[in-house]
Specification:
This protein is an all-alpha fold and about 280 residues long. It has a domain of about 190 residues: MetI-like (MetI-like fold). Helix 6 runs antiparallel to helix 8, helix 8 runs antiparallel to helix 10 and helix 9 runs antiparallel to helix 10. The protein is globular, with a radius of gyration of 23 Å.
Length: about 280
Amino acid sequence: MAEQSPVEAIGAEPPVGNRPLGLGTFVSGTTGAIALPVAVFLVLAMLLELAKRAGWLPITVPAPTEIVGALTVSWADLLYHMGPTIVAAASGYAIAAVIAFLLGALATSWPRSEPTVVKLGIVVDSVPLIALTPILMIFIGTGMTSRIVIATIAALFPLLVGAIQGFKAVDRNAAELFHVLSARRWQKLTKLALPVALPYLFAALKIAAPLAILGALIAEWVNADRGLGIMMVYALFSFNVPLVWLTIVAVSALAVSAYGIVALAERLVIRWQPGGQGHGV
């Protein structure tokens, strides 16, 4: 078979394994990915219920039915405190994504800056948030702004690594082809660099989504008037064990939902299966 030129290769149809996913494949894949974790969760909940009734669990671990009972009593309070946590986490997540995208583009466009950018990200990521939060609140205040800053710091590093690795994954031959064709800078970004970087960016986005929620929760532990973090603290100091676990379950549900939303966006944006393999959620 004659070897294709780069231009012909770009215009060629993707192989069978790389063709766009159909709606049936998408729905069945999503259903299968959700069914197994739900089944495992239900089995674990049933085992915990039986263990609690048998007296095998300590007093600090309630039965799942006690957590459900706390939900029926405190669902309005849970929704009241969940709103600020979602706002802080989502805002910090979006800001971290923009910063990481810009720093990643800078590091790959100017290679000499990459070590500095990476080391800066490592330093920021290595600072304990539980110790940094009170210091930031002295300078920024105890309002929503400080919680957004903490959520931004918590989510920044994996997004930065994903952006740098994604933009560096551009094939040299393809980059030279775009240069020969006199492509403009924005064309190189939108037509070459961004499509190649998308799998790396989405992988980083999925990792960073739960971290942003954790960052907002840490900020609320230190000082807040509303939020799941302060609700957890109030329940802890009032020795309301089922309510403490209810807030834990709520935070976990938010983290899983955030991960799932990004994974769903990945399936919708990247409509092919690299190498014939399915997308993992």
